[in-house]
Amino acid sequence: MADDKSTHDAGHEREPSYLVAQKGLKSWLFTVDHKRLGLMYLATTLLFFFVGGMAAIFFRTELLTPGPGEISGVLTALGMDPTTSATTYNKLFTVHGAVMVFLVIIPSVPGALGNFLLPLMLGAKDVAFPRLNLLSFWVYSLGALFFIYTLFAGGLDTGWTFYTPYSSNFSGTAVISATFGAFILGFSSILTGLNFMVTIHKMRAPGMTWNRMPLFCWSIYATAVIQVLATPVLAITLLLLIMERTLNIGIFDPAMGGDPVLFQHFFWFYSHPAVYIMILPGFGIISELIAVHSRKHIFGYKAIALSSVAIAIISFVVWGHHMFVSGQSELAGIVFSFLTFAVAVPTAIKVFSWVATLYKGSIQFNTPMLYGLMFLFTFTIGGLTGVFLGTLSVDVHLHDTYFVVAHFHYVMMGGTIIAFVGGLHHWWAKMTGRNYDEKQARWASLFIFVGFNMTFFNQFVLGQQGMPRRYYTYVPQFQQQHVLSTVGAYILLAGFLWIAFYLLASLRKSAAPKEPLPDNTWGGASLEWSTQTPPIEHNFHGQPRVDSDPYNFPQIDRTGGMDHH
Amino acid sequence: MILSMLMAPEAAAAAPEGSATAGQVLDPSVHTQGANAVWETVNPWATLPQASTFAEGTDLLYLFIVVLSLFFFVLIMGVQGYFMWKYHRKSDDQKTSSITHNGKVEFLWSAIPAVLLVWIFVWGEVDFLKQTVPPPDAVQVRVTGRQWFWTVDYPDYPGVQLTSSVDDNVVTLVVPKGKPVQLTMTSEDVLHDFYIPAFRVKRDVVPGRYTSLWFEATQVGEFNLYCAEYCGDQHSAMIGKVKVLEPELFGEYLAEAGKLEQEEGEPLAAFGERIYKRRGCNACHSLDGSPKVGPSWKGMWGKQETTDKGTVLVDDNYIKESVEEPNAQIVAGFEGVKMPSYKGQLDEKHFAALIEFIKTLE
Amino acid sequence: MSHDHDSPKAHRPAGAGEPHAFMAHHFNTPGQQAGAAKFGMWVFLATEILMFSGLFLAYFIVRMHYPDMVLAAHEHLNKTAGGINTVVLITSSLTMALAVRAAQVGDQPAIKRNLLLTIGFAFTFMVVKYFEYTAKIEHGMLPGKFYHAWDHGYYIEGSPHIFFAVYFCMTGLHGFHVLIGIGVLTWIYLRAGKGHFGPSYYTPVENVGLYWHLVDLIWIFLFPLLYLVR
Ligand code: HEA
Ligand code: HEA
Ligand code: CUA
Ligand SMILES: [Cu+2]
Q: What's the pTM value of the predicted model, to 2 decimals?
């Protein structure tokens, strides 16, 4: 397939794209087309990203001064009782964390880009179970509704981790609707994972062997494995929590003879693998971005593909590293610490392989690639600081401080979100048939880069100096850095608003290109670039057949014959 | 910034005066030992002393990982930057290399990090194990976490009870320098976490079981104590002070602290206010009318209070009952929270002083 | 990149099965469709097992913490009823397997007969469960704060409310699965009535069968753990 990159589907007449193949609201809401579902996920996850982000902007504002103040000021101005600012702060960071985790980062890449791209990349007409796919989207929406309901029914102030017994017996907020929402979202996640797993096993085009699958598909596959195996445990955990809160069943309640730490084991058994549900699809995007925009065969294809699977497997046995100081046994601490380091190795392999891919490439610095390169910078910092936390004695000091906050923003925001935004730009033309303004996009990416590092880098120092997390007031010595962080967050907001602005602008009627865009935006070699832009309803005219691998760019110099070093 | 991260643990200096609201001031501890005046002024981050025997070990390992991470980060970014510069696209038909993998290189970049990681793991584990086994002769202290204050008891000094308080420079924990101290901790309600950054120690405080933590302080002075596990509304106010004394002074201090008595010439109401702070009433009751965990005491005296048993006049008897049997009558709007009973902990003199104090809160 | 433009039939691998009326457009062959459905079902069963394993874990932890209480409390479960239900479910698994077999060979009356029997056994199970539950409720052996068996003259040392919490969670979730099972069995039965199934298309019957066997299997673990502790 390396030969006729820019021509689509061997000289077919242009057909109406999936965007216009059917009309009317119903054709969207009840569509079983994976591409339309992808767009619907995209819209909803970005909406919730905005909601979660705005919550962060509000509570970061509170942190401008050490004492209570900013939120009270706003509340008084709104005619509300200002003495509740502690509660308000707690609700804001909980909403922020819960929305970002359950409604944004877990469903975003698989739901939006995964849905859109997986069948295209595999050369299939759709996912294996299109109706299940639709169901999964609606289950997601139902879960989201529960979250929205929670916001209006008194909010939630438990932290996204729902630790018992605070969540089960003490918090006066809407814990049940929130946990039930998360429970429902879990099913959406399971169904999506199941669907993708089956799709990858059964729907590959003739000739698409496992080793010819784009790395994005590999990462989605590894993600799906975790989704399918870990999420049911979350479901049962949340169910037990709901029972505990309504019926006082006593499993987690120390006053009834239960064990509150048991909840943490249950929770992290899911939520640690979940952090890899969040990052693996991001890894997949980065593999595509780096290879396509340097027109280089990805370095170490097998190592990258298999390390995803290795991460998926090891991730199930490291959950205890969130509980080093929780009162679990020393032996458990030691075992979990060791296994945590075992996860770092496959990740290191990926990072090195991406950098090596650049070697002797033809690197173009357009927006998607800028995000790809930015990812390497920020994710590496995030990953390396994970090593601090995995080290037993050091984690004793750093646990539940801003160091942890900085760590997970560097991996989630600096990893997944950056990759997601990069992927969005990379496939934007394919998905929408429109071009965004490249110049604005590059400038906005600078805002993101600067704003992000300004917000979170000094939080490592804050944490190392002993600033605990989930504090709405703090000792004055930390003020300088909190101010820096807050200003950084404002810059981030500006950057994201800018991105939203030029992306939306490209969708206006008047911005429609005169000529249909070329099928292959970047000179990619995987199947999604071989079909029309935007794709037709059934993806391909006829059945694609695959006879070479997805990183076989025409620019690769084969004359040296150095395929094998 | 990275430099300051490296240096921070060594430099110990006073932080700039913050413009804190009243009630939030916990002076950053003033330990100028070994600090360098110039460094202090250029480094806003140098505020964390190494005040226990664990601190140096933890910081050394921290520093080691910082250096290692810096090495890898600079290496990766350096190589990436070089490639970006060297191989950026000059023409559209620029040829690219056909390399797809290299077994030797791949083996090396898996094996080297693996070896280094095992090294870090072993080091961290050895240090951690030191923290888990307290020496047998340690000074025993009992710590109880409640929403949202700490109480500290010394089994060897009966009658001494210290509490934490944000409102004042009240000392929460006193320990002798150079002697191991073991804390046995539990919680009355939700999870808390006992954290003293200057000592690099932290441990969850769990309801229904006892957890333990030990350390040996190496510097005389006052250090911050935090609750590091989210525990509800006033989680960030659950902070206190740890005072390290020369061993000679330690016993003396506690003997003094055990006494909660009216001082000579101290007005009864002022003594009452001291009790209010020392006994942790201030953790839940404000004086300015704002409800905290419990109702504010402002204007409480002599008013008709609505409770679950009907209305009641707030007088001496009601106050005494409220303190000894808090659940006998529960103030409307505070049904969900429980005030701990102080039965047997306050004598008549204390009550008299408290009531006198409450009377002053018009 | 090369594309075939002919109909899917042209490159269907040999032995992939004959096309049937229920083939979805996005599959190339009935074999692919059946394979996807079956694989999907297996993955789904894996999620089910993991979901229950969370409860099993909770059970083991409770048992570890309070071995004597669990021993004492389990005496109050009705072993006979549990035993009958075990036999009922195992038999229903057999009739289910017969239904699948009948679908594979296209024996229409046998499909319906065996499905009906399976549904009947499922109902029997629920009826027995109903009597067990009412007895527990009458004796005040309820989860958590609703536990008040002492009012009815039963004294169990320790924290029996936790045991009954676990009991109700586990058997409740399992019972819920039986109810779902009755639903899908009925759906399959109705489709069988329309003659949808035969040698070329029996995946739905097979998948419901897999599901039903799992429900049975989980009970086979629940029964000894809850009723026959020791
Ligand atoms: C996308 C999500 C994501 C990812 C990918 C990671 C990745 C990692 N995380 Fe993180 N983590 C979170 C999300 C994530 N984490 C969240 C959300 C929390 C907090 C939850 C909460 O409490 O609210 C958390 C908390 C957390 C803790 C608990 C801290 C505490 O509460 O005390 C720990 C402890 O071990 C940890 C460790 C790690 C490690 C070792 C990795 C590794 O996978 C990283 C591996 C990568 C590298 C190491 C970099 C690349 C490698 C090299 C360049 C090679 C050279 C390196 C060396 C030789 C060192 N994380
Ligand atoms: C995906 C995960 C994610 C992301 C992206 C973020 C993003 C941000 N987070 Fe957060 N954060 C969490 C996950 C995440 N966070 C979690 C799990 C917690 C723990 C909660 C807990 O303790 O329980 C936490 C906690 C947390 C804290 C600690 C609170 C405390 O302990 O007291 C802080 C403090 O600074 C913070 C800040 C921020 C900021 C400033 C951003 C900014 O980056 C936000 C910037 C984004 C916006 C301002 C939105 C703009 C969006 C648009 C305009 C829409 C259009 C966009 C496109 C088209 C791309 N977060
Ligand atoms: Cu106590 Cu936080
Ligand atoms: Cu983790």
A: 0.89
